Amino acid sequence: MTRGVWAAVAVCAVGVGCNSPQYYTAPAEQLPQPVNIGGTTVQIVDQRPDWEKKPFTGAVCLYHLDKAHPGAWAQLADETNAVVAALPQKPERVEVAVTSFRLVRSGDTGKRYRDINNAPNVNPNIQMQASMRADDERREQQRRDREGITGATDKQIAADKPGNDIELLFASKDDPRRMLREHPIGASCSIQAKVRLVYPGGREQTVDVNAIARGANSSGTAYWGEAIDFAARTAVHQFSEQFRSGVGLGTERGPTVPGTSTAANIRGGTP
After folding, report:
1. Closest-CA residue to 195 (of 104, 86, 88, 77)
2. Contact (Cβ atoms closer than 8 angstroms) between residue 152 and residue 260
3. Fewer beta carbons within 10 angstroms: which end of the chain, N or C?
4. Which pLDDT score, from 0 to 100, does residue 69 have?
5. Which has the closest alpha carbon to 167: 22, 49, 2?
6. Is residue 98 part of a domain?
7. In 3-state terms, what secondary structure has residue 81?
8. How far apart are the C-alpha atoms of 101 and 115, rounded to whole Å?
9. Residue 268: what are its φ and ψ, rounded to 5°?
10. How buried is residue 10: exposed, middle or buried, by Cβ count under 10 Å (0-12/13-18/19+)?
């Protein structure tokens, strides 16, 4: 990196504060209230760390959960209640302890190459290079569109997550954006939760859920609303599928959406 670039980076980081998350005040979140489903008390408990409750924007954005439509909390409650309603043997209570719930947009989402197809230069070599770049861009867009439908695999997420970019290069060790490195470039939603089912007589069963899903921006504009909504909806769907699998129920709405990162650790046995 040249001295000029380093100087510009230093000015940006120190002089204008571009190296800090831009925190904003979000509307008060409406955490789902306990409900009774067929005699089972169902409660969702927010156990997220404090930093996840402080949304911010910038090159990496951590949005409040109600930015998704419908709100991500409401979607999670609906999916949880549907699984409990389908249980053949009802527990006395079900507690969903949410330890992480993130709605994220990160990375450079602009086009990789400048469109020079209509440039006046007719040099065959330049035209060939422009054509190859256009093909690369088309394939990249097709990949993003495909992942937007199916989610992102663990390998794709690892390869596509934001690297040690300029912003994080000068960020403090406790910068919350450092906690978001596992999220893929673009819009994504992740959920980590422990579902605890308590049956009559005191027998318990626990299902650990971990899901992350990605949404691609197919609007061709800077509008990311649909991609954010898709990521939240898909992550919550994966939460439901893992919960159902953990308690011995089959998938309700077809096979699990391929390509999302999931894990379920089950203790206690199926009732």
Report:
1. 77
2. yes
3. N
4. 94
5. 22
6. yes
7. helix
8. 38
9. 110, -20
10. exposed
From 19-33, 64-78, 92-106, the region with the lowest mean pLDDT: 19-33
Question: What distances in angstroms separate CA 224 from CA 20, 59, 158, one per listed residue?
Answer: 22, 14, 22
Percentage of the chain exceeding pLDDT 90 = 49
Report yes or no on 73 lying in a domain: yes
Instruction: Give pLDDT tens digits for 152-184.
Output: 444 444 445 554 455 566 677 788 988 898 898
Are the CB atoms for 195 and 206 separated by under 8 Å? Answer: yes
246: left (phi over 0), alpha (psi -120 to 50) or beta: alpha
> Strands 40-46 and 93-106, how do they pair?
parallel
Find the mean pLDDT for residues 178-191.
Answer: 91
Q: Where are the beta strands (DSSP E) in 28-162?
A: 35-37, 40-46, 56-57, 60-63, 93-106
Residue 115 lies in a domain: no
- 147 found inside a domain: yes
The pLDDT value recorded for residue 3 is 54
pLDDT of residue 82: 97
Contact 6, 13 (CB under 8 A): no
Q: Which residue has the tokens 């990949």?
A: 143
> How many residues are recorded in the chain?
271
- Domain range holding 229? 3-110+120-267
Total count of domains within the chain: 1
Model pLDDT for residues 66-85, shown as the tens digit of each residue: 999 999 999 999 999 999 99
